[in-house]
Amino acid sequence: MVLNWGLIGCxxxxxxxxxxxxRDLDNCNLVAVSRARGNLAEGCAREFGASRWYDDWHELxxxxxxxxxxxxxxxxxxxxxxIAAAKKGKHVICEKPMAxxxxxxxxxxxxxxxxxxxxxxxxxxxxxxxxxxxxxVIDEGIIGKPIIAQINAFEYFDIKSGDERDWLIEGSKxxxxxxxxxxxxxIELLLSLFGNAEEVKGxxxxxxxxxxxEDTAIGVIGFSGGTMGIxxxxxxxxxxxxxxxxxxxxxxIHIPVVNKGELIIRSMDEVMHESYPPHENLHLPYIEAxxxxxxxxxxxxxxxxxxxxxxxxxxxxxS
Length: 319
Fold this sequence. Notes:
The chain is α/β, with parallel strands linked by helices.
């Protein structure tokens, strides 16, 4: 079985990963793309094998061959486009963060539910082999009870007004700075490992840049099982970081670069060095799993409620 996909948006993430995944997966058929600049929509369609393209996303939603859409536009458009897609009977994958507010998230969930279509949010890191291995280590009690999980995500980002991606520093379009942009991925990862968040505290602001959104933020999350999570993000530090360190009552887990998958496990008895690199296309395993769920009429992974919970936590960090 194959699911026919349409792409709303043909920007950076589509060109890097999403377009290729929809082209290459056996259970996906990319039939149409849309982008406001028609010549770029045509180029995207030709590169990734779609047979048609539109310069108005509303027209794509009228395409009867499109069964599902991947919303790959800036966050301020997510709610409007997801709700419109649901009303046309299309299943939806929506890029992260889910929306600008928890209210918009709830409207998206309700629209998909009312129209009997699936909604998944593109938090793909839980599908990394190294994260699945971390979950096994926790479940097997190798490090005892997880006490503290620390994530550092640093990406220096000195963008100027007028750049194609300057919407990332406009609060009305992005919703926030690095915590909203890529901290959301780390929050969802911790939720996938530790379950419900019961208490959230945070601090955000501009340490270096003068811009509408923060350049640095820290969130502290208390999970229902007692584990404390710390997510530190910045676009102002020169040295990049993508680390996960977890300290338990009987050992620890260390991933120096999550996107590479090298893993160090320290227990009371030994130190283990393991390697679980992700798929070359980071989005592909996630899109494949969502498509399989839709075709099988099963609950999709990383559903709208998960996306809503990530947004709720971010709002508490910002408050």
